[in-house]
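Researcher: We plan to redesign the surface later, but first we want a full-length starting point. Tokens attached.
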């Protein structure tokens, strides 16, 4: 079973992580869904004991804890045992604000539940992926936008799928997203150290600014100010943001969470903006992507039928 999911690039956030019930934990905020993302292939075969192996871009990855835990949570729903092989193809940077752990957990949950023939809705497998991210501390609220969103999205109510409320900001067709990453930042490490009270105050103000004028240019300007006011933006991030804006980008902001920059660009201005990115960041750390309006696709797959636990 093979599933595609868009990468979800975050531009700003306000964390809600003090609730005991993980379905209400999450974040308000916003960002973009990319045509680049994660393709996950899951194969299963009956076994005496459950086993799960995860490969990322053809490399066995022992510490892919979120994807592995998502598979474990699906297997807990049934009585039979299986050998599960998960293969992720990821064409965006990892630990750089692109939501790869959420996309990996979501595609794993969908693909494995489909492969086993489980009668689960998208909201149900999405909630499994969301709770897995919370448990593994690899994200807060990326899964719901991956299910409900498209293009430019804003989460106005936090929580898992079925709880969160997502709004789309209108965008015209043909826009490109260019992003470059200076340095990766592990979400788990960031959440343990960040001064979330101060960040959340700025995130709350940022969301209000965007909802008062929900257009793309205002979204990008508000997200840029979020990075500045929270002091999350490094000097080189700010220099790159200013440079790509002068080169013709419609706007630019910092990847959340990661030391990187993303910009939205009309096709005519793309060559100049790419040139600017390459002056700051090596080409292999720059992503050019279309925006995605269809974040989840079933690409192919065979299934077997397994009953859920009574």
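Model: Full-length starting sequence:
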């Amino acid at each position: 079973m093979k599933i595609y999911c868009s990468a979800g690039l975050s531009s700003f956030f306000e964390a809600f992580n003090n609730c005991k019930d993980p379905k209400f934990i999450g974040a308000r905020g916003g960002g973009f869904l990319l045509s680049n993302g994660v393709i996950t292939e899951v194969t299963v075969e009956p076994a005496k004991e459950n086993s799960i192996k995860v490969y990322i871009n053809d490399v066995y990855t022992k510490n892919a804890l979120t994807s592995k835990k998502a598979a474990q949570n699906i297997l807990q729903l049934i009585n039979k045992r299986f050998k599960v092989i998960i293969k992720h193809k990821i064409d965006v940077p990892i630990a750089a604000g692109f939501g790869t752990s959420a996309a990996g957990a979501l595609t794993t949950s969908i693909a494995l539940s489909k492969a086993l023939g489980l009668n689960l809705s998208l909201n149900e497998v999405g909630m499994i992926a969301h709770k897995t991210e919370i448990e593994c501390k690899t994200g807060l609220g990326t899964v719901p936008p991956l299910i409900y969103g498209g293009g430019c999205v804003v989460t106005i109510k936090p929580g898992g799928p079925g709880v969160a409320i997502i709004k789309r900001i209108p965008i015209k067709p043909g826009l490109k997203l260019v992003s470059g990453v200076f340095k990766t930042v592990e979400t788990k490490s960031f959440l343990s150290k960040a001064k979330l009270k101060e960040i959340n105050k700025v995130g709350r103000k940022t969301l209000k600014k965007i909802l008062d004028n929900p257009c793309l240019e205002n979204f990008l300007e508000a997200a840029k100010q979020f990075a500045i006011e929270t002091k999350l933006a490094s000097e080189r991030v700010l220099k790159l943001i200013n440079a790509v804006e002068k080169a013709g980008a419609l706007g630019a902001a910092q990847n959340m969470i990661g030391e990187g920059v993303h910009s939205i660009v009309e096709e005519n201005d793309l060559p100049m903006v790419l040139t600017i990115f390459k002056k700051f960041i090596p080409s292999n750390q720059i992503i050019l992507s279309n925006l995605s309006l269809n974040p989840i696709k079933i690409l192919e797959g065979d299934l077997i039928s397994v009953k859920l636990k009574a």
